[in-house]
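Lab notes, practical 5.
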Amino acid sequence: GSIRKFEMLEDLVVVAVIGENMRGTPGISGKVFSSLGRAGVNVLVIAQGSSERNISFVIGKRDQAAALKTIHNTFLTGEV
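Output from the prediction step:
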């Protein structure tokens, strides 16, 4: 088949959560996306590397500060 419609979205950012201890640790993705949801951040695309050491997601640029603060607080300070 051929591509019939193409849409380009602007003002998006890619955020990556990277950590050696993510591999084989259940619940990391759930923790990431639950915290983003509570912060009202809409995630458009999700990707995880086969090494399980990286979860990347695409969000609107307007949500960038909230997403970074939320991820930082969730994983580095234990706050939500």
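Observations recorded by the TA: Helices lie at 28-38, 64-77. The radius of gyration is 14 Å.
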